[in-house]
């Protein structure tokens, strides 16, 4: 059972755009009254720490770009760790960043997460095309609202 009804936002970012999207989502969640949030940069934080923080929270947001038609390697590593360690009973939301082929990162993250025991995908995935546009910023705010409503129930 998680310690907090809150969210861990785990991201990998190649050029800073996915990091910005994760930070915007955190801002919106904070505005909606969600506490005990954790922002985790998978490129700088050991996977064991990220895993521990994900276990402490009821909700997990996974955000990553596509690199060479695959997921960012640090997100791949984290997803593998979650699978091997048997992550379960979590609500997952997804943010993808792909400018060449939309949805690749979203599809790869979602395919992995739906395989975890008693994990559900919440809300529509937000797809970013390189940098966060005004439209995508609104989508992040909508996702934050959906997450906040679920966390606070």
Number of strands: 7
Poorly predicted segments: none
How many distinct helices?
A: 5
Distance between the termini: 16 Å
Encode the helix/strand succession as letters.
Answer: EHEHEEHEHEEH
* Percentage of residues in helical conformation: 40-55%
Structural class: alpha/beta
Major sheet characteristics: 7 strands, mixed
The Cα radius of gyration reads 14 Å
Net shape: globular
Mean pLDDT: 96
Strand content: 15-25%
Can you give a write-up of this model?
It contains five helices and seven strands; from the N terminus they run E-H-E-H-E-E-H-E-H-E-E-H. The protein has 153 residues and is of the alpha/beta class. Strands 1, 2, 3, 4, 5, 6 and 7 form a seven-stranded mixed beta sheet that branches. Helix 1 (17-31) crosses helix 5 and helix 2 (47-56) packs across helix 3 (73-84). The chain is globular, with a radius of gyration of 14 Å.
Summarize the structure.
This protein is an alpha/beta fold and 153 residues long. Helix content is 43%, strand content 24%. It has helices at 17-31, 47-56, 73-84, 104-113, 134-152; strands at residues 4-11, 38-41, 57-67, 70-71, 91-97, 120-121, 126-128.
């Amino acid at each position: 059972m998680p310690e907090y009804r809150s969210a861990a936002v785990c991201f990998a970012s190649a050029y800073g755009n996915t990091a910005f999207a994760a930070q915007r989502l955190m801002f919106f969640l904070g505005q909606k009254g969600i506490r005990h949030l954790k922002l985790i940069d998978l490129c700088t934080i050991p996977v064991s720490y990220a895993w521990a923080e994900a276990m402490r929270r009821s909700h997990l947001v996974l955000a990553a770009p596509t690199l060479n038609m695959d997921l960012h390697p640090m997100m791949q590593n984290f997803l593998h760790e979650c699978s091997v360690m048997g992550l379960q009973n979590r609500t997952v939301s997804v943010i993808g960043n792909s400018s060449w082929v939309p949805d690749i990162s979203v599809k790869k993250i979602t395919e992995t997460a739906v395989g975890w025991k008693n994990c559900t995908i919440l809300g529509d995935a937000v797809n970013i095309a390189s940098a966060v546009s005004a439209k995508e910023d609104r989508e992040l705010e909508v996702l934050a609202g959906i997450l906040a409503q679920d966390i606070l129930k």
